[in-house]
Amino acid sequence: MVSWSIGNVLSKAALCCIEPLSLLTGQLAVSAASLTVLSIWSGAPPRLSDWRAGLPGLLQPALASGLSTFGLTMLPASVEAILFAVETPMIILLAWLILGETPNRGVGLLCLLAFAGVSLLSWTSEPDPYATRGLGVGLVLGGVLFASLYSITVRLMSDRIDALRLTTVSQIVAFAAVACVWIGVRPLPTLTPTITDVILVVASGLLLMSIPFLLYGIALERMSATAAALLLPLVPMFTSIFASVFLQETLTAKQWLGAATVLVSALGMPLALRSKPHD
């Protein structure tokens, strides 16, 4: 979660000088290359026959990150963050319907608490001129849905495929898909990146794509999709903290209260998971 948050901050810094689709393509290239090297070093290089195992990469990060990035161009960041708070209850709902992971009352209350915390964290007193932009809301919610389906799919596949192999081929498939779109949407430009641009792309690719997705895959091997979903609200909390430190973004008193609420929700997860599921 910390890696995801730092990667988000680096991506925000990079977007001031790099076009969003180009940034996503570069990040996925770094992620796919680094995970391939790690797989080769571990003695299990990716094979061409593994392409089916990489199909979850079309859900996340290809579709989820792509839709949410373009949706963010039509919405303020606070609205986008509130919409992504829906991911936790959406994963729990899908895990209940698809995996049969019945949530108990404690887990349900923690979901509501996490949602309330992220809402406070993203609250702003300024008027929102973009409230009627339904297309942007639809794109972000589409990204949330694809990210949730990714978690469910990886949980289903984790019993048969180890996390490193699954994450590597997923990132390779995602990079191939996004790169094809990037090439098709616009002709290859004459790139003149600066050293700072390269550092931001490489660092955000590692911290936003390869490292957190690999660790998240390992977590899904060892816990239920419901348990993993309850950790996701930590991402906007840590992102806000790091943004306030490194990007000089300030939080209001209500937003700090939201950050504390999300943290309490995450810390209460182990106690809730020990409780008997609710019939």
UniProtKB/TrEMBL annotation:
Q: What organism, scientifically named, is this protein from? A: Bradyrhizobium lablabi
UniProt-listed SUPFAM superfamilies: Multidrug resistance efflux transporter EmrE
Cited Pfam families: EamA
Membrane topology per the entry is: Multi-pass membrane protein
EamA domain residues: 1-122, 135-268
- Annotated protein name in UniProt: EamA domain-containing protein
Q: Which GO terms describe its cellular component?
A: membrane
Q: What keywords would UniProt list here? A: Membrane, Transmembrane, Transmembrane helix
Q: Family assignment?
A: Belongs to the EamA transporter family.
